[in-house]
Specification:
The chain folds into 2 domains: 36 residues, no CATH class; 138 residues, Alpha-Beta Complex (Nucleoside Triphosphate Pyrophosphohydrolase), CATH 3.90.79. The longest helix is centred in the middle third of the chain and has 13 residues. Helix 2 packs antiparallel against helix 3. The protein has 185 residues and is of the alpha+beta class. The strands form 3 sheets. Strands 7-4-9-8 form a 4-stranded mixed sheet, sandwiched between helices. Strands 1-2-3 form a 3-stranded antiparallel sheet, with no helix packed on it. A 3-stranded antiparallel sheet has the order 6-5-10. It has 3 helices and 10 strands, in the order E-E-E-E-E-E-E-H-E-E-E-H-H.
């Protein structure tokens, strides 16, 4: 079987503006056999998931309600990367806004496409080492956040036991384990 081809977008139009993302209807065709179809793509800004670690090796996490699953979720602080904002700076900003922790050293652990079948954005995973609770919390209007400081191995075990676990938060924990295996012993 031959390799798949890149379909070309013939026309796109805004289908719905949903505040944090937009839905576009794209009419596409196949370059070789000329098949055509309409496809829907969600577009939003990139996301960031922070992995803030204290000097004593605790992972700063947030517990909050998630409307999609109608469940409480424990995950690293994160959110939308503002237009033109560096993902590392977005992770620093989101961490302080959601937890009040700041400072330390930051580095990008990786990036993924959350759901390339229907989404165009990326999620960036940022390690923040040596954070301290000396910042100012400023949660968004609808955020109700509990701040937790957990051993990374306990956070991973809890995530694996949760059937409605935020998949990107789980991937972030695996990225942390790969980058800092010493935190999981």
């Amino acid at each position: 079987m031959s390799a798949p081809a890149r379909w070309s977008v013939q026309h796109e139009a805004l289908h719905a503006d949903c505040r944090v993302f937009r839905v576009y209807k794209e009419h596409c065709n196949h370059p070789l056999d000329k098949r055509e179809g309409d496809f829907f793509v969600l577009r939003s800004g990139d996301w960031v998931l922070a992995l803030p670690v204290t000097d004593d090796g605790r992972l700063v996490m947030v517990r909050q309600y998630r409307f999609g699953t109608r469940q409480l979720s424990t995950e690293g602080p994160g959110g939308i990367v503002e237009p033109g904002e560096d993902p590392i700076l977005a992770a620093v900003r989101e961490t302080e806004e959601e937890t009040g922790f700041n400072g330390g050293r930051a580095r990008l652990l990786g990036t993924c496409a959350p759901n390339p079948a229907i989404q165009s954005n990326r999620c960036h995973f940022v390690l923040l080492e040596g954070v301290q609770p000396r910042g100012q919390r400023a949660p968004d209007e609808h955020e109700e956040i509990q701040v937790l400081c957990l051993k990374p191995k306990d956070a991973l075990a809890a995530a694996l036991a949760e059937p409605a676990q935020h998949s990107l938060a789980l991937l972030a924990l695996y990225r942390l384990r790969d980058a800092r295996p010493d935190l999981f012993t």
